[in-house]
C-alpha cells in the first residue's frame, strides 16, 4: 500500500492546473499531503524511530517551517503570504513522508523500486515533450500544461527550464542506475534517446549547463569515464545542431547549414527567441529589486510568495516573476534570519549525505545548482522529485573512514539501492 501511495504522490504532482471541484485551489495541494499522510500513518513505528535517530534534521525542518509562518504573519501583504504558506505546508508534509519512507525501506529492502518509478516518470514527461514539439495544441497540454513557451518545449512542466533540468537529471540518474546494475543496457539506451533529444528541445541554457555539471559529478564518482562522457556530449551537440529551436538558442539561426534538419526540409524553420542579453538583464533587474526589498525589511522579509505576486510585477508587469535565485528569494521573502536558517538546513543535510550513494547525490547537486540563476519552488513535479532525492540521500548514508575518497564510493554504496 505504501508503494501505491508513492505512485499516487508522483501522479498528483503533475496535476498543478486541475482545480478541485467546488474549490478554487489546485487539486495537488490536497492530494499531495493526503497521500503523504497515508505513508506516515502506515509507518508510525518507523516514524517514531526516525525522529529518535534524526532529531537534528527534524528540528531544522521544524525551524524552517515556523520561520516561514513568522515571515508571512508579519508581511505587508499577509493575505498573499499566508496563502502561500498554506500551499507550501504540503511540501513539509511531503518531505517528512519521504524521510520516513526511505528510512523504512532501507531497513527492510532497498530503494530501487522508487528510483525506477522516478526514472519512468521522467521518461513519460520526455515523451510528452516530443508530442508537444509535434502537436503543441494537443488536448493533454490544455489540461495539464502551464502557459506555453513554444517553440521552446516544456512538456507538462511549468517552464522549459524546469523541463530541461529534469531531463538532464534523468539522464544522469539512468547512467548511475545502469552502472549499479539496477536497469538494463536497453533501458539506458532508451533513456539516453529520450533525455538527450528532450534536453535539446528545451533550448534552456540553464539546463544545458546543469547537464554538463552532472556529467562532471558522474566522472568524479567514476560512474562514467571520459570516453563515455565525450560520446554523450557529442550526441547531445548533434541534437542541438539538428533541432531548430536549440540551434537558434546558440546563435546559429542565420547559418546556411544549421539546423541540420533544414537540409532535408523544403520549408526552413523561422524561430524568434529572447536574446541572451535580454534574459540576463531581466535577471539583473529582478536581483536588484530583491536587494532593495531586503534592505527595507531585513529581519522578517516581505513574506512567502509576495515577490512573485507584488514585486516582480513592478519590474515586468505580469505576476509570477520570482527573484531568480534560490538564496536571494529566501532572503527577500524571509529576511536575513530566514536565509541563515535555510543555509544551516543545507549544511546539516550536507553533513548527513557526505557519504551517500551517488545515485542521490548527483541529482541533489544538480537540483541546487539549477536554482542559482532561477527558482523552481512553484513547480510541484520538480520539487517533489527533489525532495525524494534529499530524503533518500539522508537515509542511505553509510559510515566509512573519514579519509575515504568519494571516487571509491560507488561499489561500496551500490547495495543501498
From TrEMBL:
Localization, UniProt: Membrane
Membrane topology according to the record: Multi-pass membrane protein
Major localisation: membrane
Short name of one Pfam family: Wzy_C
Keyword tags: Ligase, Membrane, Transmembrane, Transmembrane helix
Leader sequence segment: none
Domain O-antigen ligase-related: 193-343
Coiled coil: none
Regions that span the bilayer: 26-44, 56-76, 88-106, 118-141, 161-177, 184-201, 207-224, 231-250, 326-349
Molecular function terms from GO: ligase activity
PANTHER family assigned to the protein according to its UniProt record, in alphabetical order: LIPOPOLYSACCHARIDE BIOSYNTHESIS PROTEIN PA4999-RELATED, TEICHURONIC ACID BIOSYNTHESIS PROTEIN TUAE
Name of the protein in its database record: O-antigen ligase family protein
Organism of provenance: Nostoc paludosum FACHB-159
Amino acid at each position: 500500500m505504501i508503494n501505491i501511495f508513492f505512485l499516487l504522490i508522483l501522479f498528483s504532482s503533475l496535476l498543478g492546473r486541475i482545480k478541485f471541484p467546488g474549490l478554487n485551489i489546485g487539486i495537488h495541494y490536497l492530494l499531495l499531503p493526503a497521500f503523504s499522510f497515508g505513508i506516515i500513518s502506515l509507518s508510525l513505528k518507523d516514524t517514531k524511530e526516525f525522529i529518535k535517530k534524526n532529531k537534528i534534521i527534524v528540528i531544522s525542518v521544524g525551524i524552517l517551517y515556523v520561520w516561514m509562518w513568522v515571515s508571512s504573519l508579519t508581511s505587508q501583504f499577509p493575505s498573499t503570504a499566508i496563502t502561500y504558506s498554506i500551499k507550501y505546508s504540503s511540501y513539509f508534509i511531503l518531505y517528512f513522508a519521504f524521510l520516513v519512507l526511505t528510512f523504512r525501506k532501507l531497513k527492510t529492502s532497498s530503494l530501487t523500486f522508487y528510483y525506477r518509478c522516478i526514472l519512468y516518470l521522467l521518461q513519460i514527461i520526455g515523451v510528452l515533450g516530443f508530442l508537444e514539439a509535434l502537436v503543441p495544441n494537443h488536448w493533454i497540454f490544455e489540461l495539464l500544461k502551464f502557459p506555453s513557451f513554444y517553440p521552446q518545449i516544456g512538456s507538462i512542466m511549468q517552464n522549459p527550464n524546469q523541463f530541461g533540468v529534469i531531463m538532464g537529471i534523468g539522464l544522469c540518474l539512468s547512467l548511475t542506475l545502469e552502472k549499479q546494475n539496477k536497469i538494463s543496457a536497453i533501458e539506458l539506451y532508451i533513456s539516453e534517446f529520450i533525455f538527450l533529444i528532450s534536453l535539446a528541445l528545451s533550448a534552456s541554457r540553464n539546463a544545458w549547463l546543469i547537464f554538463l555539471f552532472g556529467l562532471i559529478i558522474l566522472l568524479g564518482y567514476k560512474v562514467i569515464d571520459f570516453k563515455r562522457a565525450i560520446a554523450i556530449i557529442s550526441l547531445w551537440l548533434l541534437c542541438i545542431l539538428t533541432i531548430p529551436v536549440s540551434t537558434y538558442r546558440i546563435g546559429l539561426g542565420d547559418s546556411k547549414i544549421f539546423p541540420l534538419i533544414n537540409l532535408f526540409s523544403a520549408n526552413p524553420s523561422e524561430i524568434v527567441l529572447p536574446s541572451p542579453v535580454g534574459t540576463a538583464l531581466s535577471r539583473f533587474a529582478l536581483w536588484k529589486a530583491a536587494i532593495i526589498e531586503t534592505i527595507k525589511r531585513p529581519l522578517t522579509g516581505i513574506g512567502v510568495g509576495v515577490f512573485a505576486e507584488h514585486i516582480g510585477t513592478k519590474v515586468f508587469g505580469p505576476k509570477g516573476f520570482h527573484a531568480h535565485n534560490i538564496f536571494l528569494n529566501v532572503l527577500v521573502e524571509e529576511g536575513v534570519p530566514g536565509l541563515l536558517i535555510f543555509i544551516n538546513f543545507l549544511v546539516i543535510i550536507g553533513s548527513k549525505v557526505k557519504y551517500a550513494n551517488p545515485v542521490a547525490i548527483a541529482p541533489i547537486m544538480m537540483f541546487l545548482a539549477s536554482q542559482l540563476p532561477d527558482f523552481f519552488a512553484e513547480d510541484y513535479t520538480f520539487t517533489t522529485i527533489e525532495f525524494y532525492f534529499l530524503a533518500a540521500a539522508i537515509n542511505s548514508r553509510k559510515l566509512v573512514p573519514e579519509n575515504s575518497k568519494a571516487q571509491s564510493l560507488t561499489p561500496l554504496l551500490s547495495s543501498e539501492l
